[in-house]
């Protein structure tokens, strides 16, 4: 058996989907207003005074906290159908389908929330391992359940889902330092691939 792991944002897509989903749910003006309100958090993060997960939770909390999960899920499904296809790199989709045609098992491993990535993955017959958002009393809290699926956590999530010793070959594709631990699992890697289109 052969398995191929793909990062999502920046590898399969040409934009960060967190900001795209915010814009889709809340509108462009509200997104920019939120960025202004969140400026102190961004400054603390860039000064290395705040970890990435805390910043992400502040962003998610600002835009989505207290949203009913049914409303959030419906919006994510609509985003996945109507907006996400235009963000996909054609060469990435070609590579995915080539793996599938060869009978390889294809998995997206993403720091983005599964809520807006998994439905696209299902339509493409791809497994999705992503960041999980906390839900309490049927509303989004803005917190992340467990750890953000990035860096070493990508490897942890992969190992929870798969016995890698069962695979003869492993492929992995990514575009940031947060993908390097995942790339280290593979015999065949692509770093910042699919960029010509």
From TrEMBL:
Domain of life: Bacteria
Protein's name according to its UniProt entry: HAD-IB family hydrolase
Keywords: Hydrolase
Entry keyword Hydrolase: yes
The keyword Signal appears for this protein: no
Organism: Chitinophaga eiseniae
Molecular function terms, GO-annotated: hydrolase activity
Matches recorded under InterPro entries: HAD-like_SerB, HAD-like_sf, HAD_hydro_SerB1, HAD_sf
A Pfam family it matches: HAD
Gene3D superfamilies in UniProt: HAD superfamily/HAD-like, SG protein - dephosphorylation function
């Amino acid at each position: 058996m052969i398995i191929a792991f793909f990062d999502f944002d920046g590898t399969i897509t040409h934009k960060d989907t967190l900001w795209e989903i915010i814009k889709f749910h809340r509108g462009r003006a509200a997104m920019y207003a939120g960025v202004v309100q969140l400026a102190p958090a961004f400054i603390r993060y860039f000064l290395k005074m705040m970890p990435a997960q805390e910043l992400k939770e502040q962003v998610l909390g600002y835009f989505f906290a207290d949203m009913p999960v049914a409303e959030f899920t419906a919006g994510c499904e609509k985003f996945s159908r109507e907006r996400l296809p235009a963000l996909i790199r054609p060469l990435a989709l070609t590579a995915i389908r080539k793996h599938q045609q060869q009978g390889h098992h294809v998995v997206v491993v993403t720091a983005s929330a599964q809520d807006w990535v998994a439905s696209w993955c299902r339509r493409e017959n791809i497994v999705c391992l992503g960041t999980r958002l906390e839900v309490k009393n049927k509303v989004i809290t803005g917190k992340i359940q467990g750890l953000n699926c990035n860096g070493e956590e990508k490897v942890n999530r992969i190992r929870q889902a798969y016995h890698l010793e069962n695979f003869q070959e492993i492929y992995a594709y990514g575009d940031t330092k947060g993908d390097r631990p995942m790339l280290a699992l593979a015999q065949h890697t692509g770093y910042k691939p699919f960029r010509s289109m």
